[in-house]
Amino acid sequence: MSAASLSVTDLRFRYPGEHHDALHGLSIEIEAGERVAILGPNGSGKTTFVMHLNGLLSTQSGEVCIGDTPVVEEHLREVRRRVGAVFQDADDQLFMSTVREDVAFGPANLGIAGDELGELVERTLERVGAGGYADRNPHHLSGGEKRRVAIATVLSMDPDVLVLDEPTSGLDPAGRRELIDLLSSLPQTQLIVTHDLPLALQLCDRSVIVSGGQVVADAPTAVLLSDAALLAEHRLELPMGFDPSKF
Amino acid sequence: MSGAHGSTVSRIFIPGDSRIHRLPSETKLVAVVAAVVVMAVTPRQEVVAFVLYAVGAWSVIAMTGIGLATYVKRLAVIIPFVLFAVIVPFLGGGESVQVVGVSLSVDGLWATWNILVKAGLGATLSIALSATTRVPELLHGLTRLRVPRLLVAIIAFMLRYIDVLVEQLGRMRRSMVARGHDPRWLWQVKPIASSAGALFVRSYERGERVHQAMLARGYSGVMPVVTDRQASLREWLSVMLYPLVFVVVLVVAVM
Amino acid sequence: MHAPDGFLQPSVALVTAILSIGVLALGLRHAGRELGDRQVPLAGVAAAFIFAAQMVNFPVAAGTTGHLLGGALAAVLLGPWVGMLVVSVVVIVQALLFADGGLTALGYNTLNMAIVTAFGGWAAFLLMRKVMPRTSGGVVGAGAVAAGISVVLSAAAFSIEWLFGASAPVAFDTVFGAMVGVHVLIGIGEAVLTGLVLSAVMASRPDLVIGAQHLTHDELAAKSRVGMRPFLIGSVFAAVVVGVVISQFAASSPDGLERVAIDNGFAESASDHIFGSSVFSDYATAGVSNESLSLAVAGIAGIAVTLLVGGGVLSASRSVRRRQMA
Q1: Number of domains present in the structure of chain B
Q2: Are B83 and B189 in a shared domain?
Q3: Mean pLDDT within B115-143
Q4: Residues forming a β-bridge with A64
Q5: pLDDT category, A1, cuts 50, 70, 90?
Q6: Are residues B91 and B165 in the same domain?
Q7: In sequence order, what DSSP letters do the residues of C150-181 get, joined into one string?
Q8: Which tops the pLDDT comparison, A81 or B175?
Q9: CB distance C77 to C156 below 8 Å
Q10: How many domains does chain C divide into?
Q11: Chain B positions in Cβ-Cβ contact with residue A103 (cut-off 8 Å)
Q12: Are A81 and B218 inside 8 Å of each other by CB?
């Protein structure tokens, strides 16, 4: 497992038929192995942004690079191997009939087969603490189990960058803690899109706020979360009684 | 038109460790289809043959260990046709017999027997198949039998998401009931139908998100096949014994 | 109408199976061209939707319930090829996993419940769309009427198969009258439900409805909704008319049309050798009240089903080609 840097320069994007840019000159540099929280209100362009990172949306203007590789049509295959995207609803991510097939889907598309594939699946499930889940029906997993298996479905492709969309939504406290333990143990560069500000503080040294399709703040998480005016301006709120300075 | 489907996908398979459970799925599929075909083409007057088929089919059910109650409950899907079959002797013409003062068509009685026995035995074997085969294994079996991969993949996605959608629908229904909705007449069904419309939109959007999740993991339009073991010749032979017995019964009966 | 094993003669099972497999193979190809690599997830989830929608029981009248069949709905929402494919998958899964419909009956069950309803419903939808206003409400109304028609077509198709492959001594005209009669009623429920589901989808995501793709932005926005009550009254009226016409056909006493046939000497000359020929099941023809009339009914029904289903297939294929060229 390795990590790669990520560089986004002046990214602009407008959905067909819309009158406003969803992304309006977004730029960000992320070091290899860094964990960065992407914060921002609903409709700020976070999802549009992360969909550019693995080419699910193709750039209209600007540039996205994973390491030295620009995200363009001819590199899509490589980019999608190197950038693992974990979607918000694990039921979208786990679409096969068994956990085994789901974890095998990505590597099988890369041409891995046979015993090698079987071992890779077992190893990856062990890695996320879901060893022995291979034959289970994804529908029957708990929320926390689903989320860990969803992460396994991209880890099995040996990515350099992980992009996680609201990884803790819908999890119970124990499931949330297990997920945080798992993410902090992974060496990949991580982008965590979330409304869960304590999660950002716990996992990420650095946070950025995306609003109106641009990066409006980029600072150490503790500093950012202490700026009450900035948070309020972008519809972000800490839980009642939560004091980031005491964390 | 059949009524509601009592159970959803996850409840079809009944865990067990019987010989039937352990058979490779493709051998079960072929054996069941072959046996049902033999049975369907057997002339109805070969009563002895049908009795032997029934013994065969029921012994398979017994071997699965799914229990009589489950078997009978699942057999209920053929009830609409049983009803049809039962009225046939009253409609049919031709030679008739008097049964407790009621004139019944002899030919009609034969037809009733024909429908009941074939529908019942066909359903029995299907139940034995679906109750002992996990969905993923069934899908692998279809793939190994060279059913187009595209079709198997669509079936697989359907089965994966049925329970998800049924749960969504259940939540919508509960929220309606919670607000006092209790329709009794056709013109009161608007909220139910609207929730079905909303469910379609959500399903379609889910389909699009799933597609993106597939692309994100390198999908290029061809479903990868995760291969596992093929059925051995011995397993094939031991399973095909059943339809073979059916064929022998048919041949002997007709001769 | 998930017929069990042995309900129709093996010959009919075989012929319809070959036909259905052929159409299904074409459907996979067409749907693949329309949806590209989205085919597997979208068709799969749509099939799950139709299956779930069929599980929803709705009240017909105090105590009795019915449920959606969804063939025409799937065609209007997803286009006829994808719609046919999706409903076929539902029928196959019901047989394979729920023992609902026999494995040897899959040929005619798929034909009647998926192919005839999707393509027949699509053709009826295109026809109805021409007489309805070019608005959201027009699409909903056309879809609803088409759904009702598709159910009746399905029943007619079954009756015609009965003529060739009856397994019980019930005459064709009895089966035809009963099947079509009952399905006119079921068709009303199907029409109402399809209309309501369509209007809910049109209200939130009209862009998803293939049957509404011809509408411009302004036409979609125009508010001319077809109300529930006039629609119900209209469909009951239509049902009564159809019912009267059918009972005229199926009645055992000589009536208008039969009179015509007898007067023309068609009755005697046509009867024996046509119905006596081996193509038809002896059962389906043995007890018929008037052979030439029954044959005429079968012929007309057959032509109607073939025209609508064939028309649906043709226009579906043509629209695919147009979309590809665009």
Answers
A1: 2
A2: no
A3: 92
A4: A8
A5: low
A6: no
A7: HHHHHHHHHHHHHHHH--SS--HHHHHHHHHH
A8: A81
A9: no
A10: 1
A11: none
A12: yes
Whole-prediction pTM: 0.86
Q: How far is B132 from chain A (nearest CA, A)?
A: 16
Q: Which range of residues forms the domain containing residue A54? A: 6-246
Q: What are phi and psi of C59, to 5 degrees?
A: -75, 135
Q: Does B78 map to a domain?
A: yes
Distances (CA, A) of C108 to C8, C17, C48, C112: 9, 7, 22, 6
Helix (H, G, I), strand (E, B) or coil at A179: helix
Query: Most distant CA pair in chain B: distance in Å?
Result: 73
Q: Inter-chain contact B227–A114, Cβ cutoff 8 Å?
A: yes
Nearest beta carbon to residue B77 from set C98, C188, C200: C98
A89 contacts on B by Cβ (under 8 Å): 209
Please indicate, yes or no, whether residues B71 and B191 belong to a single structural domain of this protein.
no
Rounded-to-integer distance, Cα B119 and Cα B96, Å = 25
Percent of chain A at pLDDT > 70 equals 99
Q: How far apart are the first and last CA of chain B?
A: 38
Q: What is the pLDDT of residues A133-181, one digit of tens each?
A: 999 999 889 999 999 999 999 999 999 999 999 999 889 999 999 999 9
**Pairwise CB contact (< 8 Å): B209 & A89:** yes
CB contact (8 A) between residue A108 and residue B224: yes
The CA-CA-CA angle for residues C216, C220, C223, to 5°, reads 140
Contact (CB, 8 A) for B61 and B127: yes
Task: Mark yes or no for CB contact A97/B136 under 8 Å.
Answer: yes
Write out the two tokens for B170.
Answer: 């259940």
Q: Is C182 exposed, middle or buried (0-12, 13-18, 19+ CB in 10 A)?
A: middle
Residue-wise pLDDT tens digits, A170-223: 899 999 999 999 999 999 999 999 999 999 999 999 999 999 999 999 999 999
Q: Is the pLDDT of residue C57 over 90?
A: no
For A198-207, the pLDDT digits (tens) are 999 999 999 9
Q: What residues have CB less than 8 Å from A216, skipping those under 6 apart?
A: A209, A210, A234
- Looking at chain C, which subunits does it touch, using at least 3 CB pairs closer than 8 Å as the criterion? B
Which residue range is the domain that position B205 belongs to? Answer: 148-216
CATH number at residue A50: 3.40.50.300
φ, ψ (nearest 5 deg) of residue C90 = -60, -45
At B96, which helix (H) or strand (E)? strand B96-99
